Amino acid sequence: MTVRGTEIVTTQELAGAGRAVVLRVGGEIDLATADAFHDALTAAVADVVGRGLTTLVIDLTGTGFLGSAGLAALVRAHRQTSRSSVESVVVAEADSLVMRALTVTGLHEVLTVADSVEHALGKKSDGVVGSSRTRS
Fold first, then answer.
1. pLDDT in tens, the chain (136 residues)
2. How far apart are alpha carbons 41 and 52 in whole angstroms?
3. Dist. CA 130–CA 107, nearest whole Å
4. Which of 57, 80, 86, 113 could form a disulfide with 129, with the two C-beta atoms 3.0–4.6 Å apart?
């Protein structure tokens, strides 16, 4: 599936020996593109749940900017996957603007964050930048 917004392109693929969906996002996620990003996330969550898979990987390594509307969409997707017993992992390079947005807002403490899709799929355990924590 490909969704094109003003400055965003998303693609979705099956990965991780058929146990995960990887949603790759390119462009800038801001107020103008947040709806397209939200729609792509919602479709990806529905695909993971519908197939009975265990993991949704949201690859933001091709994303140059992540604004507050995009951060809110990530939180909504995290809530959706948590309710469905699906693990969601956000992929962001350690020195990127996306990772900075996650860190400044504290979302790196709430969401599971990895520095590559390979790490997100569990091929290497040392690539996890942050881990999901349940808050009461």
1. 444 445 688 888 888 778 899 999 999 999 999 999 999 999 999 999 999 999 999 999 999 999 999 999 999 999 999 999 999 999 999 999 999 999 999 999 999 999 999 999 985 434 444 433 333 2
2. 16
3. 9
4. 113
Which one, of 27, 20, 39, lies nearest residue 98 by Cα?
A: 27
This prediction's pTM: 0.84
CATH superfamily of 2-130: STAS domain (3.30.750.24)
Q: What is the dihedral of CA 57, 5, 39, 102, to 10 degrees?
A: 50
Q: How far is CA 16 from the centre of its chain?
A: 15
Residue type, 124: K
Sequence ranges of the domains in the chain: 2-130
What Cα–Cα distance (Å) separates residue 53 from each residue in 14, 46, 95? 10, 10, 30
Burial of 122 (0-12, 13-18, 19+ CB in 10 A): middle
